[in-house]
Amino acid sequence: MSASATSRLGWYARRAAQMSPGEVAWRVRDQAVRAAWSPRQVTRRQLARTTYPAPARELTFTAVLPPGTAARVPGEAREQILEAADRLLRGEWETLGVLRTDLERPDWFRDPVTGLRSDPDKYAFRVDHRSQEKVGNVKQVWELSRMQHLTLLATAWFLSQDERYARRVADQLRSWWRENPFLSGVHWTSGIELGIRLISLAWIRRLLDGWPGVADLFERDALAVRQIRWHQQYLAAFPSRGSSANNHVIAEAAGQLVASCAFPWFRESERWRRDSALLLERELIRNTFPSGIGRELASDYQCFVAELGFAAAVEAEASGHPLSQVTWDRLGAMADSAAAMLDERLRPPRQGDSDEGCGLLLDAPAASRWPFMLALADALVGRLDWWPRPAADAGSVIAGALAGPRHQVAGRPTQRPSRFADAGVTLLRTSGENEIWCRCDGGPHGYLSIAAHAHADALSVEVRYAGIDILADPGTYCYHGEREWRSYFRSTLAHNTAELDGRSQSSERGPFMWARHAQAREVEVIDDGDIARWTAEHSGYASLDPPALHRRSVLLDRASRSLDIIDEIEGRHQVRLAFHLGPEVQVELDGSTAALSWPQPGTPGAARLELPGVLGWSLHRGETDPILGWYSPGLGRRVPAYTLLGRGYCALGAPLATRLEFLEIDTPPRPVLSWGISDARLREAPEIRAEA
Q1: The domain 37-403: what is its CATH number?
Q2: In 443-586, where does DSSP find H-type helix?
Q3: What are the domain boundaries of the chain?
Q4: Cα–Cα separations (whole angstroms), residue 189 to 120, 147, 180, 558
């Protein structure tokens, strides 16, 4: 047996260990169905020899936009869309940090990172999309076939009526239809990709409605009609379930619902619509806490799921089959909690995984989808007075026009919340200019038994000054192919928290699988005037000998603009305490004192970081053996950044005290004592000695 086959069998064994008996039975059934569907595969050669008859009845598309919608799109958004569309006409498009220049005639199977090209004629369920050796970086390959560059081109036509944009959309859609027949190749291996693709197809058809060639591209094209049906047949047969029912099942249900509402052309359409609506409503509730925070505890996936939910809700509303009030209430909670978590620059938290997923792209791409999602939510459910005010964009105007009047949502907060107790997420922040923003993590590890998109980050903090990362969450960097890097960016050491005895709080079994989950809980949260204090603990080291409990308290003193972090760890263990700085931060380390600065135009700043003197401190940046000192601004991208690492031993009753004090430029620090314990006492606890 080959090494790759052995590795794959090992993955299946580890994966099965995370499943319930019911899920195992379902997956056995699923594999049997996949094998039985093999004769249904359509290859490119078969497709070239086949002439599909025209639809038996004339099909029509009625889910069109109201007249005058294009004129309401703000001028700045319009200019940005047309500029991005012109770059696309030249073949330029960025996918997950890679600038592609080959999109005049894209190769749907080539990975631009490795140059590998997967087999387009292989039966989809025999394609090992997890193997970079066989398919390349599958995220890069899949991303283009989400067809979101084509929704942008269709939006450009909708706003300008420029024939070039519509023709390019038509050429590439027809290319995709021909190159990707049913169950052939890597683009039929993952339901989430089919769901997002269906949303794109519905909106491409809608935006091109006034173009003379649109009916020939869709409802009069027998292959296009079959592709739309094939996609829905696949999603109906192979939904994500059990430990895989995270954001994937949301995308599958949303895509099926959008397609069955927009293209109700098939005898199964009504059943598909009912089933997908019920599935979406059930899974939206399961995938989110009542507060609106995503249960995956991966911030960007909350935005992604909200976008998918809103896109499906808009389509259902427009088709005369609105979703339930419960669903709208939960979508409203997702938007409200998202608005509450943004910093003063409208930057979201960086908790957990992110792959920059987008549910529907109608505007020019941007670094963050959160302002777009909030603008969409504003159009659909209305913003609250305390919300930040994102700029109006094309997506919110166009989707809002399709949906009609705003939907009323119940139970919304009258003031900006700072704590989401069900998710264990608390924000300590100042108000006014140069906001100090601190996210504290005291909740569950992640969602479902594999917690696929979680990081081992219990009790970590993420601190910003005026929207600039000071104590930074590292981000994600990669999903597939670079296992060592994937493990590092998910590890405890990569986060602003304490690692004991050289191991992460939670143990991984694969790139998207965790075996042991550290469970944290908030012990106390107090916010009273100038002082805000948060305390939490986690049990991720209960299996150590002796067992250890890590408790952390964070205090924000708004008057002195300082943060105190106190770590208490039971038992005598080797500890590594890491503080990761954002890529814009410069640092000078002198013993246990670090002078921080960020000479940013407009918001220059400085801070002093007083570290526990009983640990031995070292400075790291851009290291690879071992990996340390990195920051990922987005999937597929990493840049060097400074990490402060303290090493030593801890014992019961010996707290580790850290103070971060923000300084006005050219102003000496103000001495402030907190907690009723002197800094000297905290730093000189005899039970801790520096590691030799």
Answers
A1: 1.50.10.100
A2: 483-490
A3: 37-403, 419-683
A4: 12, 16, 12, 52
